[in-house]
Write a structure and sequence with these properties.
The protein is an alpha/beta fold. It has eight helices and seven strands; from the N terminus they run E-H-E-H-H-H-E-H-E-H-E-E-H-E-H. The structure holds adenosine monophosphate (AMP). Adenosine monophosphate binds next to helix 2 and helix 3.
Length: about 220
Amino acid sequence: MNILIMGAPGSGKGTFSNRLKDEIKLDHISTGDLFRENISNDTELGREAKSYMDAGHLVPDDLVNRMVLDYLKNKMDPEADGYLLDGYPRTLAQAEAFEEATKGTDLAVDHILYLDVPHEVLSKRILGRRSCPQCGEIYNIYFKAPATENVCDKCGHELTYRSDDNAESLKTRLEDYDRLTQPVIDFYNDRGLVASISADRDFEPIWADIVKELKK
Ligand code: AMP
């Protein structure tokens, strides 16, 4: 089963991807995580992506398309029952390139989960976001604080926050989302692939809707 999980920054893509991975043996590919990994390993790709990311801008389409297709074609976990792509495609040009490259192959998309959250809720979610660099658990100082401040409940590692989770970069990311990524939802809606899930709710009802959708 191949799944795209879509939604604005802070809509819960990372949180629900973590849960989906626990339930189904999917290869979870977050383009943001792939870039951050390249930045911490100081690769050429990472150096190229960093300036865009720190300013809250999208990385150029060509760079992202190449990275995703290279991963899916050459690096995917052979044991996985499909992929869970998180944070891609984010522009119409990416969606078109992705469709062109995967159409009629076993890399074609089966389900698109769109986590729909009003903008005013997103800011608080993003600016309060903390995550564990060791086990990937995600927290929020306003909604889901760890038992001990700044320490992961699961593995005890110190929590970190992302350098692009600041007010200035957030403004650009949300504007870019409306301008560039919303048309991608429309593109897939026209193909009847999108399950729109109201994601300004507690975890469990959202999760129940996701499970229902994937059983279709
Ligand atoms: P994320 O972790 O998904 O919020 O992504 C963090 C940053 O990585 C974004 O603000 C972009 O700069 C870059 N990025 C991730 N995915 C994409 C994509 N599909 N297209 C362009 N830039 C991306």
